[in-house]
UniProtKB/TrEMBL annotation:
<dbReference type="InterPro" id="IPR005116">
    <property type="entry name" value="Transp-assoc_OB_typ1"/>
</dbReference>
<feature type="domain" description="Mop">
    <location>
        <begin position="2"/>
        <end position="67"/>
    </location>
</feature>
<dbReference type="InterPro" id="IPR004606">
    <property type="entry name" value="Mop_domain"/>
</dbReference>
<dbReference type="Pfam" id="PF03459">
    <property type="entry name" value="TOBE"/>
</dbReference>
<dbReference type="GO" id="GO:0015689">
    <property type="term" value="P:molybdate ion transport"/>
</dbReference>
<keyword id="KW-0500">Molybdenum</keyword>
<protein>
    <submittedName>
        <fullName>Transporter</fullName>
    </submittedName>
</protein>
<dbReference type="InterPro" id="IPR008995">
    <property type="entry name" value="Mo/tungstate-bd_C_term_dom"/>
</dbReference>
Amino acid sequence: MKLSARNALKGKVVEIAKGQIVAKVKIDIGGQSVTSVVSVEAIDDLGLSIGDEVSAIIKSTEVLLAK
């Protein structure tokens, strides 16, 4: 699959918290974590489980920085 997004962070799924409609997926990326909110249907379609290697693909018009 080809994507236009250029920000792909490879990591491992460390937590999945399913609700009725959406789920929070926490990904460990070299000691830092990224959390994504996706549909439960997407989790099931991907067969996603804890320990899976995934890519967090980020497409955004803004990146905010704080110091």
